[in-house]
Design brief:
The protein has 266 residues and is of the alpha/beta class. The protein has eleven helices and eight strands.
């Protein structure tokens, strides 16, 4: 379905029934990255997934995007569907959106799941996103497929599970050039680290042990700053840990949501 929000339209999917759980994906992926987690949760939850601005089946607006804009996109989708409160989670860029939701719209969230995501930028991180956006402007999103998959993957993934590599490549190719170049500046200006102490919702943090874009030490910093948070490091997984190790990832998320819904503070 298409949902109007924040001046544009978004491709969304809803599966299952029960309390609302919403998932936001990373840059150059799409809502299909949550297929396995949705299957694991839909018997107990109503799972909403959406393609971010400029990704998958969602419209790609012109210009540079900001994290405030991406958070407003999510709020607009919730409003359009009449979702007052939900569990909200995301990976990479989606994790940054989740941080923005926690910090600027905490009343809308029951709990949060943040996977393979950063809290603040660095000079190297900022420069890398500007360089990748420039490469896409020159040669299209296809020009960054190979380098992106290498950066995302754990050692030996191509030999161990070539289907995962093919799946990553397909998601990147489905991303519009405009959407990639619009989102890159938002990530380059990431600056939530100094506010992590404000977060007061139950929060699960996950990270692949071989994630080089948002390494475990970065997630440990968030864990230390977010009171009462839980941290799970997933072995033999890179940046897209939920696709590389879906069973471990999904079990951790399901157990966390169950504890929150039973009133147990993780």
């Amino acid at each position: 379905m298409q949902i109007a929000s924040n001046g544009t339209t978004f491709h969304c999917r809803i599966d299952g029934d029960g309390p609302w759980v919403v998932f936001a994906h990373g840059l150059a992926t799409d809502l299909t990255m949550w297929d396995e987690l949705t299957a694991a949760l839909k018997d107990r939850y109503r799972v909403l997934r959406y393609d971010a601005r400029g990704h998958g089946g969602s419209a790609a607006t012109e210009g540079d995007y900001t994290l405030d804009m991406l958070v407003a996109d999510a709020i607009g989708i919730l409003d359009a569907l009449g979702i007052a409160h939900c569990h909200f989670g995301g990976l990479s860029m989606g994790g940054m959106v989740t941080l923005g939701m926690l910090l600027d719209h905490p009343g809308r969230l029951i709990s949060a799941v943040i996977a393979d995501s950063r809290h603040s930028t660095t000079s190297e991180f900022t420069a890398a996103w500007h360089e990748r956006a420039a490469e896409v402007r020159r040669g299209g999103v296809g020009s960054v497929v190979a380098s992106t998959v290498r950066r995302w993957s754990s050692a030996g993934l191509a030999e161990r599970n070539p289907a995962v590599i093919a799946r990553m490549e397909a998601m990147i190719r489905r991303t519009s050039d405009r959407g990639y170049c619009g989102c890159a500046p938002a990530l380059a200006r990431l600056n939530y680290g100094h506010r992590l102490g404000e977060i007061d919702r139950p929060t699960l943090l996950l990270c692949g042990s071989e994630d080089h874009g948002a390494p475990p030490e970065n997630t440990q910093q968030m864990h230390a700053a977010i009171k009462g948070s839980r941290f799970v490091e997933i072995k033999q997984a890179g940046h897209i840990s939920n696709i590389e190790q879906p069973d471990i990832f999904n079990q951790a998320v399901a157990a966390f949501l169950d504890e929150v819904d039973r009133g147990v503070r993780p």
